[in-house]
Amino acid sequence: MTPYACVSGAAAHKVTNNLIEFHYFGHCQARMAAASPAERAVLEEEFKWLLREEVHAVLKQLQDILKEASRRFAMPAAGLESQMKQENFILGSSTTDQVKGVLTLQGEALTQADINLKMTKSNQVLHFSFREDKQWKMQQIQDARNHVNQALQLLSSRDDSYHFKTGAEVNKLMDAVMLQLTRARNRLTTPASLTLPEVASSSLTRMFTPPLPGDILVNFYINLSKLCLIVYQLHVLQPNSNKNFKPGGSSVLHNPGTMFEFNNLKFEVSHVHKVECVVPWLNDTLVFFTISLQLCQQLKDKISVFSSYWNYRPY
């Protein structure tokens, strides 16, 4: 195997088989360490080819993938570029039928929530839905989309005519793109932790008709590819309960028994209901993020093969 083949062989271009690439690069590194001056000259030419050709090929591939991710967030309706498709999702739970409902998602906005809640003690069924003039922005989706668009801007800042001079320059760009992609992924995989007073004071509580009872709180969030609804049933603590009052902190999901104070009243969570629905296009975007991060890392790995094992150091 020639040094040229060592670097440009098919195994080094695999996207999905990291284990093969790991061993393959290790083999290449061993050969480079023992390379003659002539072989090192060939390697230097190969590195220049990588900067001139392969880097741009990876950038183009990344742009194509992230444009698909961006389109998933926008969800344009066919022939109506200014509008976005509305999708209805049925809420479900494997543990309870206390809460049922249908959510309508339009891009990053929850435009309708039609919910039935069976009260635990009375078995009375409450029905409430968004007012027609209200919709709830899913901040996690909005933030993830913004990070994807920032990654695309970084990639488009280096067109085909741009000449990368060093591996460090490529790595700097890859690090910046990976930072945006990691932030985008984390926004979908890590819901915000809130205190119950923060949930109670949210404008979400004022979006329903009929208005939510004072002993009901709701919250929506994204967890991976799922759109989740949490319903808290509360009871008011008596004024003489101060001795045992221990307010809870921040959490994605508060358990029964959690206490909090709001509007000079003290409450305790009596029941918690979590229901969710799978949003397929959110799963698509998470897959796109994973593939893109792998592509970025593999390009960095190829550059490290050169920079670590021969005298010509592009840093």
UniProtKB/TrEMBL annotation:
Name a single GO cellular component.
Answer: RAVE complex
What are the subcellular locations of this protein?
Answer: Cytoplasmic vesicle, Secretory vesicle, Synaptic vesicle
- What residues form the membrane-spanning segments? none
Q: Main site of residence?
A: cytoplasm
Q: Known InterPro entries for this protein?
A: RAVE2/Rogdi
Against Pfam families, the record matches this protein to: Rogdi_lz
Matches recorded under PANTHER family? LEUCINE ZIPPER CONTAINING TRANSCRIPTION FACTOR LZF1, PROTEIN ROGDI HOMOLOG
Family assignment?
A: Belongs to the rogdi family.
State the name under which the record lists this protein: Protein rogdi homolog
Which species is the source of this protein? Erpetoichthys calabaricus (Rope fish)
